[in-house]
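Re: weekly structure request thread

Next one in the queue (281 aa):
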Amino acid sequence: MAKIRHIFRLYALYVKMDLAWLFRDRTFAILAILTDLISNLSSVMGVFLLAWRFDGIGGMGRFEVLFMLGYATIINGIYISFGAFNTANISRRIGRGQFEHMFIQPVSLPVQLVTGGFFPITGGSNIISGAVVMIVVTTNIGIALPGVWWWVLSLVVNIFISFAILMGVSYLASSLAFYAPVQAEEISSYVIDSFSHISTFPLSGMSAGLQASLITLIPVGLLAWFPTLALFGNAPFNLPALYPLLFAIVLWIIATYFFKKGLNFYVKKGINRYHPMGHRR
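Done, posted below.
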């Protein structure tokens, strides 16, 4: 319990810093909020307009596509809110020799990774935008939702499972940075960016083989497409709705093994890129 209270105290501290940073100047705050709004809309508008013009894409109705876009936007918002300062793009910290700084902090490494870079005010606009889109969809879609409260709970759980899958893939790929810091410094950012972009496209119109590969080998379909269909009672390949959870558990077991293995190598061998500022010598 003491550790949990400590984590929430750190979260509260980051919220204060985030508020101070965003509202340090009125003009800056207005411009930041407006540009965030425009960016959020433009990132999903192309797929949305196609779905609206043709009454859906690949068998998914227009409102299902819109719901999927809102879902993907929320995942991106959580990533920004919790992953600032490269706790999500962890290969950057590894490749730049910044892990040494984390070792000497008076806070354990797991707590630093969980709390470091928490900026819900700055990054929360995507979460709000996605939630608004979902509310609009659920009030207009012609599907009888099973037990509203149970369905909402399932939605929240699925969102955090999807985020866990995104982070699991990022940390698994980042394990390479322990062995090749120069070559793999940006690997986690490339993985997250590619997954975030592809997750906004409906996969229903693709071949079964390609769909299967995108929910197994390259699990980008588990970030928004699969959960959307599962929440509306139409999970792909008749898989159980718990499939993303099972996949996330297996993924994190594998990612944890390889990350710890890489970290042990890093602790023994060090890194030749270390600099007092922790960035590119």
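Residues 2-269 form one domain. The chain is about 65% helix and 0% strand.
Next request, please.
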